[in-house]
Amino acid sequence: MRQCAARRDDQRGQTTLMIVGFAGVLFMLLAVVVDASAAYLQRQGLATIADGAALAGADAGATGEEVYEGGFADDGRARQGTEAAEAAVAAYLVDIDAHRRYPGLTFTTRVADGSVEVLVSAPLDLPLKLPGGPGDAPVTASGSAALQLG
């Protein structure tokens, strides 16, 4: 009978250590889920901005001399004016105040093969930072648009 009492005394404090360790694992898991959700939501917002900018660029790019002189490509896409499309993308981002909503926003515009492609990127300040982990993460999204005949 005395052996059972001695064995119980030796294991005292084990449960506390397990609870503390389990709480630490739960916190890390919570931080990963919250940060991943924040990154997903920012990527969705950037994708919406990229799509709108690409549409604005395709619309403005198809009104220049390239369309009237070059017409439509073999696949039915309107030829795009590079300068007009790039200017329209920049103006669209200013009009919707994208740089205020996403501080540090950068974008690139590519006009090729009758389409306008826009790549936007912005840093995300992670809501919950794990010790030793990054403080922010770049989030990128892209959108493209083309005007098609008929």
TrEMBL record:
InterPro entries: Tad_N
Record-annotated Putative Flp pilus-assembly TadG-like N-terminal domain positions: 13-60
Pfam families in the cross-refs: Tad
Transmembrane segments: 17-41
Origin: domain of life: Bacteria
Keywords recorded for this protein, A-Z: Membrane, Transmembrane, Transmembrane helix
This protein's name: Putative Flp pilus-assembly TadG-like N-terminal domain-containing protein
UniProt source species: Nocardioides zeae
